[in-house]
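S.,

As promised, the 1,3-dihydroxyacetonephosphate run. Input:
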Amino acid sequence: MGTFSRSGLERLKARRRAVILAHSYQPPEIQDIADLVGDSLELSRAAASLDCDAVVLCGVRFMAETAAVLAPGKAVLNPAPGAGCPLADSMDASSLRRLQEEHPGDATVVYVNSSLEAKAASWACCTSANACAVVSAAPTREVVFGPDRNLGAFVARSTGRTLWVFDGSCPPHDGADIADMERMRRAWPDARLLVHPETPPAAWDLADAVLGTGAMIAYVKSSGARRFLIGTEAGMVHRLSVLFPGREFSAVGRIGCPNMKKASPEAVFSCLEDMEPRVRIDPSLAEAARAAIGRMTAIG
Ligand code: 13P
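Predicted complex:
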């Protein structure tokens, strides 16, 4: 196995016609070697549209799987195959089916943080960036939604739709330390507090805005404030600090996702050398999930 160097990585990327995509929660050293750092929706759209032969998806497993469904002609490589998502794992196909059977005829929208089986059984999936738009576009007035109960409650409140929500959550976001948020608000009264909709409603009540990570960037860009308290996975602070060097960002709520920290530059390098671990999806499952994932990338 070759050793990692920036110049070696650039040569390997050119040889493989590869791009490196990284979620904003990834460790700084991964964000710094990525061609594109983005939110779940931006990464999905990039995987589908970029002109390349291989995509290295630095995130968690459902992100790599979604990219593989959207880019069937490209090799999707996952440098952290052990990086799961407890939220996605919380709702298996049979528990979603039970919820659907309780609300027959209602369209189902699932968060992208879900299994391919759940996506295959849904009208559409969504990310935090377009959850409200996707639910508003659903063909039925009432909508089955899963697996994140906080995002579901936020979408119901924002859209006025009735949602039948699965009782799942992202442990790091749902366990946000609200007392820490309150303390930081008091310490920095002029700062803006931005929280992710996977946090519980008690966090939204303290916040200036409830936003997905992509919308947090847009908020900071258009805000005149100098300091921001960031209530989402702490990797987002690195992303914002790189984009806005003149502003100050502090992570609040002690929200850390261990799965998002499993990739390393060495693993990125070696997966491009070996073209493994490669995401391989059963073609019939990919086909079944494609319509829901396609609506996610098309709406909002
Ligand atoms: P976004 O990428 O939509 O901001 O959501 C991030 C997230 O919490 C994934 O679990």
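The longest strand covers residues 18-23. Residues 76 and 235 are 23 Å apart (CA to CA).

- D.
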